[in-house]
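Researcher: Let's continue the batch. This sequence belongs to Homoserine kinase, and it's 292 residues. Same format as the previous ones, please.
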Amino acid sequence: MVTVRAPATSANLGSGFDVFGLALERPADVVRVERADETTIEVTGVGRQYIPENPAKNTAGVVAEELDAPAHIEIDKGVRPSSGLGSSAASAAAAAVALNELYDCGLTPTELVRVAAEGEAAVSGEAHADNVAPAILGGFTIVTDEDVTQVDASIPIVACLPEIVVSTRDARQVVPQSVGIGELVGTVGDAATLTAGMFRDDPELVGKGLRNNSLTGAREPLIKGFDAVRESALSAGATGVAVSGAGPSVLAVCREGGQGSVASAMLDAFFDVDVEARAYQTSIGDGATIFR
Ligand SMILES: Nc1ncnc2c1ncn2[C@@H]1O[C@H](COP(=O)(O)OP(=O)(O)OP(=O)(O)O)[C@@H](O)[C@H]1O
Ligand SMILES: N[C@@H](CCO)C(=O)O
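Model: Same format as before. Here are the structure tokens for Homoserine kinase:
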């Protein structure tokens, strides 16, 4: 039996649609695998009623099929599904790392990212790896068709999750299919600024890189109260705010020790538009961890 904890993640970060991702210290999924003749899945924890136990429809089951590693898989969900915090990716990442260990497959962490991305494809229709990469590798990650690059980074974060459901599949429909040259130039500038900030552990630069972006910004209207929540977070000291992944979570980058006031400002702003929410005061953290 092997048990793995894989963290929640936040993808896109404004300027890095389908490219950037970061691991959060919390929340996380815990997945336990045991060898079996055929794959079965049991789900407990937050939002379990929305998660299929049919292995063909669960990201962890798809990973078991990809690795040809049948197992009884117990998933304890800490990351709410359809949260924008990489819920489906946390299970896929934890299952990939756990099954690689259980069956001694010998895959490298980067190879496991590609396997876990197939689990994501089963639920969102496309094998984007921007959540599974940080869920496995930790820190800040940059995913392209050819490569996965990981950078250790330490930045304070608030991830505010409202009681709204946005599915990744639906949120991908609102992203524009093309952008103009001016927008492209701005996006490259923001992405480069954010990346420099990650290397320097500099919340000011990372926050600047989250600036409003026409691709990921197209999702803001799907989140009731988004503009007010962003303004409140910035007034409370956040250096930048963006939709987390496909939403509805809202990510705020904070200065050292600034998470408390930013979290409470974001919760108040959601409350003012009658939306219940919870805020994780966290920071960029480690990837999947095996418990022996
Ligand atoms: N193990 C799993 N954990 C969570 N959701 C799963 C799992 N397997 C399948 N799903 C399905 O995936 C969907 C949730 O994935 P989705 O990508 O929409 O949310 P998310 O992972 O929280 O968001 P994002 O990718 O934007 O961060 C739900 O429909 C859920 O039923
Ligand atoms: N890059 C993905 C992340 C969500 O899974 C998207 O924004 O659709």
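Researcher: Any comment?
Model: The pocket of adenosine-5'-triphosphate (ligand 1) is lined by residues 11, 50-52, 58-60, 75, 81-89, 91, 123-124, 131, 167-168, 245-246 (CB under 6 Å).
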